[in-house]
Amino acid sequence: MTSTIEPTSGRDPACATPCGALRRPADLVRTVDVSGLVDARGGLLDRAIFTDEQLYRQELRRVFAPSWLFLAHADQFHKPGDFFTTYMGEDPVIVVMDKGRRIRAYLNSCRHRGARVLRADVGATRNFTCTYHGWAYDLDGKLVSVPNREGYPDSFDTDDWGLVEVPNVDSYRGLIFGTWNPDPVGLRESLGDMAWYMDAMFDHDDEGTVVVGGVHKWVLDGNWKLAAEQFATDWYHVNMSHASALMVLSPTKNPKTEIVHRAGRQYVGTNGHGAGFPVHPKNRFNAKTVHEWTDYDALRERLGDARVEGPLTDGHATVFPNFSYLPVIGTIRVWHPKGPDRMEVWSWTVVDKSMPPEVREAQRLYNLRTFGPSGIFEQDDGENWSEVQAISHGFITNTVPLNYQMGLGSEREDGRHPGTTSELYSDAAGRAFYAHWRELMNTPAWHEERNQ
User: Fold this and answer.
1) Assign residue 272 a region: left if phi > 0, alpha if psi is -120 to 50, beta otherwise?
2) CA-to-CA distance for 140 and 2, rounded, in angstroms?
3) At what angle do helices 428-441 and 224-233 cross, to 10 degrees?
4) Looking at residue 374, what is its pLDDT?
5) How many C-beta neighbours within 10 Å does residue 452 have?
6) What count of Cα atoms within 13 Å lies in the side-chain half-sphere of residue 160?
7) I want to staple 202 with a disulfide (CB 3.0 to 4.6 A). Which of 57, 127, 173, 323 is the partner?
8) How far, in whole angstroms, is CA 422 from its chain's centroid?
């Protein structure tokens, strides 16, 4: 049997149980109007959005809490009790297959004193038991064991103290997302035209995709948005930042002409999503074994010429806010925020399930060599983000705006690729990314609207 990953809908996680006499003072959730920090039309950005602690706390409740966030890949769950622990913003969560083979997610925090009830990264279990005082929960999140139960008052009801469940979990092409919003726009609607671009990587055939090689994790100094925006919008850095890596991998002595200097397009999503890609029928700068195995005629029949010659190539993409992928490399990743100055990168290698073992291994190794923790491209990117962050706290430096004007006014419907697109060398998707960030930051989330 396969897992059932269907939309789930639970009660508001912010109202999981009666709060009694608890009332959080408004001063603890102060908000900042960020309208003057992002000029999407003029292409200017205030660096405070990368460094300010108060803005970061506001991001967690207004950007991360209401958004659809990537949780895991469906291939990580095969039988009831299979679990994977991850984060939604800075909230630790457990993703698990329940006894009915449905994928669910819970806040990884005991309702007694708040410790995690599951400390392993991945595995299988029958229940979740807190190692602090022994409260235990089943796969449905229900509190099933309380040591010294007789010491609690008669009003204590275990039904009120189960794990806080992520109210909505859904999937697209094997990618599992969740949101704390109890009444969100659906995942597919939220993706919009971005789904067309995602299919170029995740819908090669009816067998779907699988994960190989586990999850790689590493920490970088730098704001999470620096990484997310680059994967959404930035082909511009390739020529300079990755020059040495391109010389190593290029089949010719002139990689700049062979690989970098090509025409292409950039998808500019209305919900902050973005994707860039060269457009060339022979743009296949990937592992030779994978390239030779791939049936491009079958892909053209399934996906169409526009996708095979565009977003299936050496492209880059971000699903807002913090899920990114590289189609030809086979990498998907999440930029977990760890404060305004630090991020934790979690990376998977994803391949077609139909790939034979030797082709899977070739893709896995190619990913590691290029965009693994010590990959020749990955090292360049991490150094850039850390460099930007390192100097952005200076008083004068922090007040000097950043320029996002490349491709300003070039956005249009090109008639070949869905939605609005710009040139390959453009900041258009970056401007859209920050415009959507600004909108969310200035919009009260569901938990604030309830208390107004």
Assistant:
1) left
2) 19
3) 140
4) 83
5) 5
6) 9
7) 173
8) 23
Q: What would the mean pLDDT of 195-224 be, rounded to a whole number?
A: 96
Q: Are 265 and 414 in contact (CB under 8 A)?
A: yes
Query: Which pair of structure tokens corresponds to residue 55?
Result: 């803005």
| pLDDT tens track for 286-326 | 778 998 899 999 999 999 999 998 998 888 999 999 999 99
Write the class of the CATH domain 68-180.
mainly beta
Which two three-digit tokens encode residue 133?
């005082």
CA 404/CA 426 separation, integer angstroms: 9
What is the rounded CA–CA span in Å between residue 22 and residue 4? Answer: 38
CA angle 444, 447, 451 (to 5 degrees): 90
H/E segment holding residue 50:
helix 48-51
CA 26 to chain centroid: 30
Hey, is 88 helix, strand or coil?
strand
Residue 406: closest CA among 277, 236, 263, 278? 236
Which is nearest to 309 in space by CA: 393, 382, 417? 417
Q: What is the pLDDT of residues 229-277, one digit of tens each?
A: 999 998 767 776 666 767 776 655 555 555 555 689 999 998 999 999 9
| Displacement of CA 348 from its chain's centroid (Å) | 12
Verdict on whether the full-model pTM lies above 0.90: yes
Length of the chain: 452
68-180 matches 193-441 in fold: no
Amino acid residing at 394:
G
- The tokens of 97 are what? 């297959």
Q: Residue 327 pairs with which residues in a beta bridge?
A: none
CATH topology of domain 193-441: Naphthalene 1,2-dioxygenase Alpha Subunit; Chain A, domain 1 (3.90.380)
* Residue spans per domain, the chain: 68-180, 193-441
